[in-house]
Amino acid sequence: MGLQIFGFEKVEAPRFEFDVIWLKLAPSFYLHLIERDPTTKLPEGPWSATSAIADPKNLPRGHHVCFTISNFNYFVQKLKEKGIEVHERTQPDGKTKQAFFFDPDGNGLEVSSGSPAS
């Protein structure tokens, strides 16, 4: 129903070890619905993380907002230079890079080098 009301198009998502649904709203807004990690009480995020420096490796399955950026490597380098703990990984497509981190208020953020579905 949400697809019809909001105009999202379901697009192909990479295969992960958990369920995901990727939705696209033209021209370039994506919404990723990610299965909650059943081994944790709540996905790690601003309300469940115990501090702003909680482990960002838990964010791929936790609450976060993602931005696709063209200068991915430069951006991640600057985060590290500022002492921000970053969890990096490459999606199963082998091309799309991701970096997860927390802002000073404990909000989970992701930057991505692009979207394989675009």
From TrEMBL:
Q: Where is the VOC domain?
A: 1-114
Which superkingdom does the taxonomy of this entry point to? Eukaryota
Annotated signal sequence range: none
Q: Where are the transmembrane segments?
A: none
Q: Where is this region: Disordered?
A: 88-118
Q: What name is this protein filed under?
A: Lactoylglutathione lyase
Question: From which source organism is this entry?
Answer: Solanum tuberosum (Potato)
